[in-house]
Design a protein that fits this description.
The complex is a heterodimer of chains A (about 110) and B (about 110). Chain A starts with a strand and ends with a strand. Chain A is about 0% helix and about 60% strand. Chain A is mainly β and about 110 residues long. The radius of gyration of chain A is 13 Å and the shape is globular. In chain A, β5 and β6 form a beta hairpin. In chain A, strands 2, 4, 5, 6, 9, 10 and 11 form a 7-stranded mixed sheet that branches. A 4-stranded antiparallel sheet of chain A has the order 1-3-8-7, with no helix packed on it. With about 110 residues, chain B is mainly β. Chain B is about 0% helix and about 60% strand. Chain B is built from no helices and 11 strands. In chain B, strands 2, 4, 5, 9, 10 and 11 form a 6-stranded mixed sheet that branches. A 5-stranded antiparallel sheet of chain B has the order 1-3-8-7-6, with no helix packed on it. In chain B, a hairpin with a 7-residue loop joins β9 and β10. Chain B is globular and about 45 Å long. The chains are: A mainly beta (about 110), B mainly beta (about 110). At the A-B interface, β5, β9 and β10 of A face β4 and β5 of B.
Chain lengths: ~110, ~110
């Protein structure tokens, strides 16, 4: 089983709908992150959480919200989806220790019509 | 604002060649630099992490170097194989070490048999 699991893997939905992307991890890491990837723009950080009670905005948090339900679960919500939120979304985790790499899930491909 | 650039955007080489991928960053105040590999439809896999105090890291046929003062890193791949075909991304952690990663746009490598 994957260490970092994202659901769903693919989603097509309509403008204005509320969408939740889920991430769960079995690595026991405290830190979790949500990124989006757009062609030609690399990955950009949306939100990150260093523990259940610590949630921070990233570079592009507008239009998104998150919930850290437990150490192992970190959900990303789009309250009212718009077409320019069409992207590939990645969840990642890392240890609460300096100089440790981040571990990524396989991504959720989201299309908003 | 930290910016990370990778050139070229795409590269095609015959099998067996040694090759170098380039990454540059505008602010030398970094905590570490990471190189990732991304296969189509998959997440990112961490290849090498270089701490700001280090000059290089090696793993198998991969060698990553870091020149923090000039804002440059290279990923050297020896004796390339078709299985090395993927997108390679570099990312820096700012010296504030909040866990954020700032990514380049990636270099897509194709190794032809």
């Amino acid at each position: 089983d994957a260490d970092v699991t994202q659901t769903p893997r693919n989603r097509i939905t309509k403008t204005g709908k509320r969408i939740m992307l889920e991430c769960s991890q079995t690595k026991g890491h405290d830190r979790m992150y949500w990124y989006r990837q757009d062609p030609g723009l690399g990955l950009r950080l949306i939100y990150y959480s260093f523990d259940v009670k610590d949630i921070n905005k990233g570079e592009i948090s507008d239009g998104y919200s998150v919930s850290r339900q437990a150490q192992a679960k970190f959900s990303l919500s789009l309250e009212s989806a718009i077409p320019n939120q069409t992207a590939l979304y990645f969840c990642a985790t890392s240890e609460d220790v300096s100089n440790q790499p981040q571990h990524f899930g396989d991504g959720t491909r989201l299309s908003i019509l | 604002k930290q910016e990370v650039t990778q050139i070229p955007a795409a590269l095609s080489v015959p099998e067996g060649e040694n090759l170098v991928l380039n990454c540059s960053f505008t602010d030398s105040a970094i905590y570490n630099l990471q190189w990732f590999r991304q296969d189509p439809g998959k997440g990112l896999t961490s290849l090498l992490l270089i701490q700001s105090s280090q000059r290089e890291q090696t793993s198998g046929r991969l060698n990553a170097s870091l020149d923090k003062s000039s804002g440059r890193s290279t990923l050297y791949i020896a004796a390339s194989q078709p299985g090395d075909s993927a997108t390679y991304l570099c990312a820096v952690t700012p010296s504030s070490n909040t866990g954020k990663l700032i990514f380049g746009q990636g270099t897509t490598l194709q190794v032809k048999p």
